[in-house]
Task: inverse folding
């Protein structure tokens, strides 16, 4: 076959792959067709990779094969991680994707350097800057999620000024390179400065903001792949990058709305500053607490229960105990549902995956818009490891740092029960008036142990 | 060159709109699998990495290309794998009431 027709066949394979990618995302709209979507994506990816391996430009396969094997050896364990580790795995895969995009951009630069136009240089610089900062930013995010790095926001005076100056530095170098592409010694400097900026960008952001940050990094990773498509004039990359980028963007918007904050506020606002002012006067207020026996009795007597899980449930690994509770209550005819806030957990959809893993049917999982109208008719709202997303101050207290944030209105339920280790304020350091309501019972203890005790009580009660 | 750019821009904008419309319809239930699936699709940069690694133009480009192949291929394999594992866990409640 002459090279031209071979190239046309490859292009055709790419077009089919692109169509399959779009179908993959379309089928993801419902859990019933979602697995078909994964299959479509896989077929598209295999097609594109096989077609590429037939490209006549490839003269040596040795390193490609080695790299593919290494990729598979790294990728398979990363695909088999436990569901609680999915947020850090996702951050790590953003890092890998951005690393690949940045490295290809860098290689292109050195290959094409003698005859680069200013416009080529603009595309390459932009691509490499975004790829590099996404790489280190995602690594920091993964480190925070894995708790190798501290989850609290790390802030210092003049931080935003320093960070933005570093970004400014990278842009100035890029502009210099666009005007003088032959100044190749500056290119590694630009890469280095961008890498530093990625670190500075994510370090000040706290764990509770991770859903937004992961989504934003997702959209950057997509953007860098799309830009690489521009550099290489490869439309598959443009499409895949645009799909990934728009997905990350949509998720970021949803996360920001769910916290009533803007992008800039998440990236540069550092929740930590609010924390200090929020701890004002401390009056002694009384709370009502209850034992597992009392909690079990109330739950058993209820007709309807909505369980509100949060990151605390994931930390305590309580989801399987929660499933036992769900089973025990369902068996007694109690209607049990789950109310899930968009930013519960450490990434979009985190709680749904954990509960699905624990075998809780997905038709029992409600998003915020579906849950809120249900609370007034609900006998018991059981909050497990969630805090700020249930804080009524978000609706009533204009002085509260989370004022305006949409919440799960658990305070509308007839009885509220909150499983919590202690009364200490949550991640953002904001006091929660929910705990002092007359209808609220605090269940102090470890989420997993406490739910286990309730389940035992429910089982014991059955025999008497 | 510039016409290439304009073509790519057309593709980018159209794909962006398609992405927006399609992804808007994904239920919040599946936002985590959505992110891992788009990650796996994004790993298609492996095709560019394969060409850089295989063209063997310089040691530097081969090394960079090979690292990029490994990084993106691990995303592709791991991304599809974990998405499928997650989706397998999403089940409807059985209709029978014990």
Result:
């Amino acid at each position: 076959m002459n090279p031209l027709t071979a190239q046309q066949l490859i292009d055709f394979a790419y077009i089919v792959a692109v169509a399959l990618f779009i179908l993959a995302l379309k089928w993801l709209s419902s859990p019933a067709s979602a697995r078909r979507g994964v299959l479509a994506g896989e077929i598209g990816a295999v097609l594109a990779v096989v077609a590429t391996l037939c490209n006549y430009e490839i003269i040596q396969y040795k390193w490609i094969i080695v790299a593919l094997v290494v990729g598979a050896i790294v990728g398979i364990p990363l695909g088999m991680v436990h569901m609680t580790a999915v947020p850090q795995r996702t951050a790590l895969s953003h890092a890998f994707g951005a690393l690949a995009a940045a490295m290809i951009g860098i290689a292109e630069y050195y290959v094409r350097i003698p005859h680069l136009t200013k416009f080529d240089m603009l595309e390459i610089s932009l691509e490499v800057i975004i790829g590099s900062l996404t790489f280190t930013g995602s690594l920091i995010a993964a480190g925070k999620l894995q708790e190798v790095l501290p989850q609290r926001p790390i802030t210092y005076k003049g931080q935003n000024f320093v960070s933005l100056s570093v970004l400014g530095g990278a842009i100035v170098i890029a502009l210099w390179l666009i005007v003088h592409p032959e100044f190749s010694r500056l290119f590694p400097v630009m890469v280095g400065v961008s890498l530093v900026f990625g670190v500075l960008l994510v370090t000040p952001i706290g764990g509770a903001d991770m859903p937004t940050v992961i989504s934003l990094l997702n959209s950057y990773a997509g953007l860098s792949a799309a830009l690489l498509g521009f550099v290489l004039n490869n439309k598959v990359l443009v499409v895949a990058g645009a799909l990934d980028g728009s997905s990350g963007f949509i998720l970021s918007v949803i996360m920001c709305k769910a916290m009533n904050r803007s992008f800039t506020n998440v990236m540069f606002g550092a929740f930590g500053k609010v924390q200090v002012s929020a701890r004002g006067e401390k009056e002694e207020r009384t709370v009502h607490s209850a034992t597992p026996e009392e909690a079990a009795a109330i739950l058993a007597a209820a007709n309807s229960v909505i369980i509100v899980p949060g990151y605390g449930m994931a930390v305590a690994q309580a989801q399987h105990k929660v499933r036992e509770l769900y089973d025990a209550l369902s068996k007694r005819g109690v209607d049990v549902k789950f109310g899930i806030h968009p930013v519960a957990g450490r990434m979009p959809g985190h709680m749904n995956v954990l509960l699905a893993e624990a075998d809780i049917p997905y038709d029992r999982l409600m998003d915020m818009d579906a849950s809120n109208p249900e609370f007034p008719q609900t006998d018991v709202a059981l909050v497990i490891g969630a805090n700020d997303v249930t804080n009524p101050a978000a609706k009533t207290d204009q002085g509260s740092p989370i004022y305006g944030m949409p919440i799960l209105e658990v305070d509308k339920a007839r009885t509220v029960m909150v499983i919590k280790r202690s009364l200490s304020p949550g991640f953002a350091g904001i006091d929660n008036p929910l705990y002092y309501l007359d209808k609220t019972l605090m269940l102090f203890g470890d989420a997993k142990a406490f739910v286990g005790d309730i389940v035992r009580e429910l089982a014991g009660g059955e025999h008497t | 060159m510039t016409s290439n750019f304009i073509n790519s821009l057309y593709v980018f904008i159209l794909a962006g709109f398609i992405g927006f419309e399609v992804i808007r319809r994904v239920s919040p239930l599946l936002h985590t699998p959505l992110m891992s699936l788009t990650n796996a699709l994004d790993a298609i940069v492996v095709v560019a990495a394969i060409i850089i690694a295989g063209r063997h133009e310089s040691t530097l480009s081969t090394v960079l290309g090979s690292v990029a192949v490994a990084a993106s291929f691990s995303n592709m394999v791991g991304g599809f794998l974990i998405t499928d594992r997650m989706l397998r866990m999403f089940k409807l409640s059985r209709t029978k009431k014990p």
